[in-house]
Amino acid sequence: MNLISIITVAAKFAVSASVGGVVGNLVAVKTPPNVKPLTKISLGLGTFVLSGMLSDMAMNYVEAQAIEILEGIVQTREMVKAEANKTEGEG
What we know:
By secondary structure, the chain is mainly alpha-helical.
């Protein structure tokens, strides 16, 4: 596994955990304290599912952005190498 893959996996994990935390806190804030146990279970399951769905969407977004950035870096490096080779050929 190269450095880019490790960074991408770490970023996706961080985004996933963050989204899960935000959704969990949002549900906790909006849930009245005196709900019945069955409602608490339902809210917990709903929170889990919603967190998973939003985390997947966020991870896909982060991965797409990372790929776009990395492609730009690769293109820039290739242009710099080509320019360096061109300069060496002239000198």
